Amino acid sequence: MSFQAPKGTFDWLPPRSEWALLVRDALSAPARRAGYGYIETPAFEDTALFSRGVGESTDIVTKEMYTFESRGGQSLTLRPEGTASVVRAVIEHGLYGGALPIKLWYSGSYFRYERAQAGRYRHFSQVGAEALGAEDPALDAELIVLAADGYASLGLKNVRLLLNSLGCKECRPAYRAALQDFLRGLDLDETTRQRIEINPLRVLDDKRPEVRAQLVGAPLVTDHLCGACKAYHEEVRGLLGAAGVAYTDDPRLVRGLDYYTRTTFEFVHDGLGAQSAVGGGGRYDGLSEMIGGPPLPSVGWALGVDRTVLAMEAEGLITERAGHVDVFAIPLGEEARRRIFPLVSELRRAGLAVDMAFGGRGVKGAMKAADRSGARYALILGERDLEAGAVQVKDLTTADQTAVPLAEVVEVLKGKLS
Ligand code: HAM
Fold it and tell me: What is 16-171+225-314's CATH number?
């Protein structure tokens, strides 16, 4: 019997896996520099946290959650996203009693039972950042700039930012009613008709051409914003412009989660086909109260690690990086192995990246392994070298070889590699 990774999942293997680490690091670095602290929450939560937080009528909650009953009879769900968990943790630990906003970032695995295809997985990784407890357009703009800077630091050129405002509890009901009136007059199937009554904004996100064609004249949320939401949105737009972050206003931008209010945004990459969103987020002023917490106006984003690596591949930014050791040690014989082993440890402790030949292969096999390792230098220790108390240092790019006394080799290699 043989096993395969479950459908919709895949393994990150070297050397490509290095890029996943690098992307995670690059996407979180700007937030870390802006005072966001690291939070880690469990990979599963009470099912009700997500059904209430993300929204009962969303695809995520109705179709995509990995829900199971624990042995204790509790309904648990593998997290489909990170925001509800972060808000739960902030409420549970009373963090809102301290300085506001509470700025947090996270990185981890998320699970959605989606139709698997290129760029859409059932297990994927996000880097996220959330700022809780402040209503300030500068905070929305800060988060957007941090995400844009993260993508830019990876060298990505074709990430576009789409920006919208979804209004607040004052102006959204009137827009919702106007949209419902419009949608009820269209020629739509029964399921979509039901959606009009439950979650009309989601109909705007329908991808079918026959539906899209009918949506052309749909009322736009930005035409229905109240004065306060309009002013707030203008301020966010102005701050983004001042920070030199380009964006496109997209009054049809609808996100797949129900908690959003006011600012919403998505980063898209055109080299990815249908799954073009590399990241997204927005303001969620009512989420805390929806899950039993105090009023806590907040804003945040999550950026997809897997899709960002795909975007880098689409832009040719993923080069076959040479392996990641500096030095590869090759003992010729048992005595040499006993001598070279502590030397390898010493070199590593001195900060060099070092690997050695294992498994007693001959010189030829060991030299091949040295080449494959991407090392700049090979250290070759033979019987004669042992007698002379020296080791051969071979430059693998020029093939130059010199004997270096064993006692000096750490310093010599440190010098060569600095
Ligand atoms: P989201 O738009 O559902 O937002 O996910 C954010 C990003 O995660 C997407 O833009 C995409 O890059 C990646 N992603 C989502 N689903 C998949 C999948 N099945 N396969 C691969 N990548 C995927 C959220 O999750 C919100 N929690 C963002 C947020 C934070 N809003 C406020 N704060």
Answer: 3.30.930.10
Residue intervals in the chain for CATH 3.30.930.10: 16-171+225-314
> At CA 250, angle to CA 307 and CA 214, rounded to 5?
105
Residue nearest to atom 25 of ligand 1 (CA): 81
Please, where in the chain does CATH 3.40.50.800 lie?
Answer: 327-417
What is the DSSP code (8-state) at residue 14?
A: T
Lowest mean pLDDT among 92-96, 160-164, 324-328, 352-356: 324-328
Distance from C-alpha of 333 to C-alpha of 310, rounded to nearest angstrom: 45
Q: Is the pLDDT of residue 241 over 60?
A: yes
Minimal-distance CA residue to ligand 1 atom 3: 256
pLDDT per residue over 89-127, tens digit each? 999 999 999 999 999 999 999 999 999 999 999 999 999
Look at ligand 1, atom 9, and give the residue with the nearest C-alpha.
Answer: 279
Chain centroid, CA 383 distance in Å:
51
Q: Kindly state if the Cβ of 301 falls inside 6 Å of ligand 1.
A: yes
Q: Whose CA is nearest to atom 10 of ligand 1?
A: 279
Q: Does domain 327-417 have CATH number 4.10.220.20?
A: no
Q: How many residues does the chain have?
A: 418
295 cis-preceded (ω within 30 degrees of 0): no
Ligand 1 pocket, mutate which of 161, 307, 310 (most atoms under 8 A from CB): 307
Ligand 1 contacts CB of residue 307 (under 6 A): yes
**In the predicted structure, residue 242 carries a pLDDT above the cut 90:** yes
- Ligand 1 and 235: CB distance under 6 A: no
Q: Is the pLDDT of residue 282 over 80?
A: yes
Q: How far is the CA of 174 from the centre of ligand 1 (A)?
A: 28
Q: Nearest CA to 166 among 248, 285, 290?
A: 285
Ligand 1 pocket, residue 256 CB under 6 Å: yes
Contacts with 85 (C-beta within 8 Å, 6 or more apart), sequence order: 41, 42, 45, 49, 79
The pair phi, psi for residue 65, each rounded to 5°, is: -85, 140
User: Which atom from ligand 1 is nearest to the alpha carbon of 126?
Assistant: 8
Is residue 385 in contact with ligand 1, taking CB distance under 6 Å?
no
**Residue 262 Cβ contacting ligand 1 at under 6 Å:** no
Whether the per-residue pLDDT at 382 is higher than 60: the answer is yes
pLDDT at 216: 92
Confidence (pTM):
0.94
Nearest to 161 by CA among 26, 22, 267, 49: 267
